[in-house]
From TrEMBL:
Its EC number is 1.1.1.49. It catalyses: D-glucose 6-phosphate + NADP(+) = 6-phospho-D-glucono-1,5-lactone + NADPH + H(+). It comes from Rhodobacter ferrooxidans. Belongs to the glucose-6-phosphate dehydrogenase family. Residues 14-187 form the Glucose-6-phosphate dehydrogenase NAD-binding domain. NADP(+) binds at residues 17-24, 51, 148. Catalyzes the oxidation of glucose 6-phosphate to 6-phosphogluconolactone. It comes from the Bacteria. GO terms for cellular component: cytosol. HAMAP family: G6PD. This is Glucose-6-phosphate 1-dehydrogenase.
Length: 484
């Protein structure tokens, strides 16, 4: 199967914070890969903007080093790299002052898409938006891309939305969540809405429960001070996992367009029940396996910030009433793994005598690693000796199913940046969606802070705190194993 690469319109993309870690690891190498694939046209330009007083040659040298480090060898063609670097420009700029803004304005070209990527701290979003407007750099068709965290509570999210709204329309603001750019996440919508097979069963009558897991092996070493002010709830649940929950639970939109998809996601968030204290488990990783503990990494021995959280969530609408959604995410766990598991109910009556080996049908959507979809079904065990049942997987790895092209799945940032240039907001969060997520999240955080709850300790390389296992065991269910 050959994937189609459709070039985007010529553009000027300004990356604020172009010397930062995100730009170096993801944004600039991703743009090179799109250039290598033929999606970025030769008359497009990428303009780096940051505080550092670099020359254009020095900036290009830094980007080349990033490409050498973060792009696979089969795509590092010397001629292509040189052609890409020729599209790069750089301007030193003061986000909170006036230095650099006139040179940046002079670089803008008429007749091409203008996009501005705010790869900076959220505290600078308002300053950048104001200066782009006051210096006449952004026009009525310009787009801005803002990174998370988009606020740290409802009040700050509302304030940030209000600041951006002073200078840009909602259809110009792209709040990026890289999880929505993952190929498997987008395929989740295709599996649900392009096939009649699952949609009739996609409701509480047939689904026993849903698990969403985002497990990481890394700790917070190197950014412990920042992380200690957010924690797993703010860093992962309020945005990434909320988006995954919405895509699983949403109603079919009337059409696959930004307004329709985001309207349905918003309905899911507003239908979420408050979460009871007994349905929340928070944890902190301990020292072990030659690694320091969370409190050491955070440089805060009294820290009550969670590096792990598990929740039992209910969506109160006709489709999902009574079906629990179990969410868990954590640092320093057994393996790096992100997946959605939909467990269907057992048939109401079994005609077979052999029920000891009975297993429910399970749909597993793997987001990382080895993106793909796995459906577990019951069949007769081969061989003589009666009707013995066994469970087998119908497995589709994208890399295997799609051949060489499937093995070359674009990075999430690549897809999302190209959507910005196209003007397609389907995979980006809308302002009211962000605020609704915080309106649900804030009372949960305020509750454990008022109670003075402390996170449970858990061993590095484990599946998390023992209490998280009990969260499901008491319901007669089990977490799917995090595999090494």
């Amino acid at each position: 199967m050959v994937s189609r690469v459709i070039p985007v319109e010529p553009f000027d993309l300004v990356v604020f914070g172009a010397t930062g870690d995100l730009a170096r690891r993801k944004i600039l190498p991703g743009l090179y890969r799109r250039f290598w694939a033929g999606q970025v046209t030769a008359d497009s330009r990428i303009i780096g903007a940051a505080r550092a007083a670099l020359t254009e040659d020095a900036f290009r040298a830094d980007v080349k080093a990033a490409i050498d480090e973060f792009v696979s060898a089969d795509k590092r063609d010397a001629a292509m790299i040189d052609a890409f670097l020729a599209r790069l420009h750089y301007v030193p700029i003061d986000a909170v002052g006036e230095a650099g803004w006139k040179p940046l304005k002079d670089m803008m070209r008429p007749g091409v898409v203008r996009a501005f990527y705010f790869s900076v701290a959220p505290a600078l979003f308002g300053d950048l938006a104001q200066r782009l407007h006051s210096h006449g750099i952004a026009d009525t068709g310009s787009r801005i891309v803002v990174e998370k965290p988009f606020g740290r509570d409802l009040a700050s999210a509302r304030a940030l939305n209000a600041v951006l709204a002073q200078h840009f329309r909602e259809d110009q603001i792209y709040r990026i969540d890289h999880y929505l750019g993952k190929e498997t996440v987008q395929n989740l919508m295709a599996v649900r809405f392009a096939n009649i097979l699952f949609e009739p069963l996609w409701k509480s009558e047939y689904v026993d429960h849903v698990q969403i897991t985002v497990a990481e092996t890394v700790g917070v070493d190197g950014r412990g001070a920042y992380y200690d002010k957010s924690g797993a709830m703010r860093d992962m649940v309020q945005n990434h996992m909320m988006q995954l929950l919405c895509l699983i639970a949403m109603e079919p939109p009337y059409h696959f367009d930004p307004a329709a998809v985001r309207d349905e996601k918003l309905k899911v968030i507003r239908a979420l029940d408050p979460v009871a204290p007994d349905d929340i488990v928070r944890g902190q990783y301990l020292a072990g396996a030659g690694q320091d503990s969370y409190v050491t990494h955070s440089q805060n021995p009294a820290s009550r910030t969670e590096s792990y959280i598990a929740l039992k969530v209910h969506v109160s609408n006709w489709r999902w009433k009574g079906t629990p959604f179990y969410l868990r995410t954590g640092k320093r766990l057994r393996a790096r793994e992100s997946e959605i598991v939909v467990t269907f109910r057992e048939p109401p009556h079994s005609i077979f005598d052999d029920t000891e080996g009975w297993r429910e049908n399970v749909l597993v959507i793997r987001l990382q690693p080895n993106e793909g979809i796995n459906l577990k079904v019951m069949i007769k065990e081969p061989g003589p000796g009666g009707m013995r049942l066994t469970q087998v997987p119908l497995d589709m790895s994208f890399a295997e199913a799609l051949g060489e092209e499937g093995a070359d799945i674009p990075d999430a940032y690549e897809r999302l940046i190209m959507d910005v240039i196209r003007g397609n907001q389907t995979l980006f969060m809308r302002g009211d969606e962000v605020e609704a997520a915080w309106a649900w999240t804030d009372p949960i955080i305020q509750g454990w802070e008022a109670r003075g709850d402390r996170p449970r300790g858990y061993d590095p390389g484990s599946s998390g705190p023992e209490d998280a296992l009990m969260l499901m065991h008491r319901d007669g269910r089990r977490w799917r194993e995090i595999r090494e």
